[in-house]
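Whether sequence alone determines local backbone shape is best considered at the level of individual chains. In the encoding step, the backbone of a single protein was reduced to a row of integers, each denoting a local shape. For completeness, the protein is quoted in full, as a sequence line and a line of structure tokens.
***
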Amino acid sequence: MIFKSVGDERPYPEHGLSSRDWARIPPRQVRLDELITTKAVLDLHSLLARDSTFYGDLFPHVVQWHGELYLEDGLHRALRSALHQRSVLHARVLELDA
């Protein structure tokens, strides 16, 4: 299995971070098999697009809540990593547990 679990919602409270706020969080390595997705639907056009991160953050956004890691943004990047036989990716992790 690629991810720990596939979800279709965000169980954690709204954090209100802007793109600029996310950019201040340094990326760190996260194992794919520790992530719980917050989207259950995948768009193949986005997955296969060469410029899918052209207008956005290069690093996926992960929220740590109650000891779990939720993939808030970057599902397509995470799947691309898995397709390239990688078990980890660099992501920005917001720790709401703290």
